[in-house]
Structures are given as structure tokens and as C-alpha cells.
Write a structure and sequence with these properties.
- By secondary structure, this protein is of the alpha+beta class.
- It has six helices and six strands, in the order αββαααββαββα.
- The strands form three sheets. A two-stranded antiparallel sheet has the order 1-2.
Length: 180
Amino acid sequence: MPATDPRPLTGEPVSLDLLNTRWMHDGVRQDLLVGPEGLRIWLAGNGLDRRFPADAAALEHVLLAREALACAIDSPGDRASTERVNAVLGHGRIRVALTTEGPGEEAEFDAPSWGAAWTAAYDYLNLLRAAPDRIRGCAHEACILRFFDTSRNGTRRWCSMATCGNRAKASRHYQKTRET
């Protein structure tokens, strides 16, 4: 059983959750994916641990996918960023089939070590199809986390209202009391 996930934000769609394997803590950048144990934690947190390996090759591929996704989100429409995501997607495909339950789809990969990386990149495509304007970064200046805004009116600003949202409100209150 993998150790507990130390990240402050989990449960986002798998592509954004992969980006959230890097976060800030007390002004220092943290990275869950510094070795296979961190990959095991991330895979388990996304229900992928039974489907994909957590070895050195898989870690290398997941790190490539994370960088590709970060570039694509930071520079939407940039040709180089698009090519990086497509390079990851090139290691897998969707096979359609008729199953006993009806039409079905199954992902296939060049090698099992590409499975988690490809799944994250494919998830990003699904987010782009659903609502690209709802892929957001936390509005707190010291936070690097990403989220998919599922609020009804689409106005979520913080990765977490309890942490970053509260810090911003406390900072504004401090500034107001200092000015008076």
C-alpha cells in the first residue's frame, strides 16, 4: 500500500492532478514524482495503480506528459506545446469494439509504461472538448495548483477556499487595517 498523498489538492481530473504533483509549501516547490514511490501514490490516488506500472520507465513517461501538459496549458495554441502533447498521445490509441454490454472503447499502448502518461494526455483532450475556459490556475500568487472549475457559474478562483482563498481574504483584511 502506498504512503499517504501529501499534496494539498487532489481529486482533480487526471491531467490536472498530474500537474498538481508539483506544489508550493512554505515558499518551497515540492514534487511528488521524484521516484517510483511518488508515482505509486499518484497512480493510487487516481485509481490507476492496478492498470499501470510504477517503474522507472513509467515515471519517465509520466514526467514527459506532465511537462507537455504544463506547456500546453501555459501556452494554449502554441505549436511546440501541441506537438509535445501529441508525442505522448502517439504512444496509445483508442480501440472501439462491440462488447456484451454494447459499444465500448479500450485504450491500447505501445508499452504498459506509457499507459498513465497517455491517460493523462487523453484526459486533457476531454477537458478541452468539455470546457477549455474552465481549466484554471489558482488565483493566489504563491500557488501553482490547477483545477477544473465545476462551479455552476464558472467563477471559482482558488484551488481551495479553505487555504488559498482564506489567505487572500486575510491578506486583504490586513492591508485594509494597516491603511486605517
